[in-house]
Amino acid sequence: EAGVAQSPRYKIIEKRQSVAFWCNPISGHATLYWYQQILGQGPKLLIQFQNNGVVDDSQLPKDRFSAERLKGVDSTLKIQPAKLEDSAVYLCASSLATGRKETQYFGPGTRLLVL
Amino acid sequence: AQKVTQAQTEISVVEKEDVTLDCVYETRDTTYYLFWYKQPPSGELVFLIRRNSFDEQNEISGRYSWNFQKSTSSFNFTITASQVVDSAVYFCALKSQGGSEKLVFGKGMKLTVNP
């Protein structure tokens, strides 16, 4: 079974530029998550989708970050404009459904460097 | 509030030594789940184990074992006879209803196993 796919793996941009990340979850997984992992810290949830609806985006900086999952499968996360402090690894994860017992499976991440 | 504390930030051992990674959690929920993930240098978070709050039976899986104790709010992870391939950052995580079922991570513990 294929895991969570993400692209690109690495991205270097200058501040104030835009960037977009793509995620394809495990087949059949209804729930998709985007996390931000700053160096030396644990991942922090940015947004959670159940199918194509947003479940939780309370920690998403909505003035510059946006995400969508239009057909309930793939998802994109966009940053516009990027700031230096956005340098981090952006991890996508998926699970069969929402709920405490559901295990999240993670992709390889996109490493973003903002100069 | 939900919180996970991994007091150790970095451990270095020699191959074949046993090593225990500590995890202490806080939650007011009576039903919750605890997870351990491994993040090798490649960056992908690899799921290791999930335990629910009603199951305090400790588990052994090959060289890995877990010790869950509700009385001390701890969920420790032991690697027996460590190997160089065990070198990674290990994260403990908590999911409970009071936290909107978000997966809350500790800061991680970097394990280096030297030959």
What secondary-structure arrangement, pairings included, does this model have?
The complex is a heterodimer of chains A (115) and B (115).
Chain A: E1 5-7, E2 10-13, E3 19-24, E4 31-37, E5 44-50, E6 53-56, E7 65-68, E8 75-79, E9 88-95, E10 105-106, E11 110-114
Parallel strand pairs in A: 2-11
Antiparallel strand pairs in A: 1-3, 3-8, 4-5, 4-9, 5-6, 7-8, 9-10, 9-11
Chain B: E1 3-5, E2 10-14, E3 19-21, E4 24-26, E5 32-39, E6 46-52, E7 59-61, E8 64-69, E9 74-79, E10 88-96, E11 103-105, E12 109-114
Parallel strand pairs in B: 2-12
Antiparallel strand pairs in B: 1-4, 3-9, 5-6, 5-10, 7-8, 8-9, 10-11, 10-12
Keywords:
heterodimer; A: 115 residues; mainly beta; seven-stranded mixed beta sheet; four-stranded antiparallel beta sheet; 11 strands; B: mainly beta; six-stranded mixed beta sheet; 54% strand; globular
Structural account:
Chain A has 115 residues and is an all-beta fold. Helix content of chain A is 0%, strand content 48%. Chain A contains no helices and eleven strands. In chain A, strands 2, 4, 5, 6, 9, 10 and 11 form a seven-stranded mixed β-sheet that branches. In chain A, strand 7 and strand 8 form a beta hairpin. Chain A starts with a strand and ends with a strand. The mean pLDDT of chain A is 93. In chain B, the strands form three sheets. In chain B, strands 2, 5, 6, 10, 11 and 12 form a six-stranded mixed β-sheet that branches. A four-stranded antiparallel β-sheet of chain B has the order 3-9-8-7, with no helix packed on it. In chain B, strand 7 and strand 8 form a beta hairpin. The model of chain B has no long low-confidence stretch (mean pLDDT 91). At the A-B interface, strand 5, strand 9 and strand 10 of A face strand 5, strand 6 and strand 10 of B.
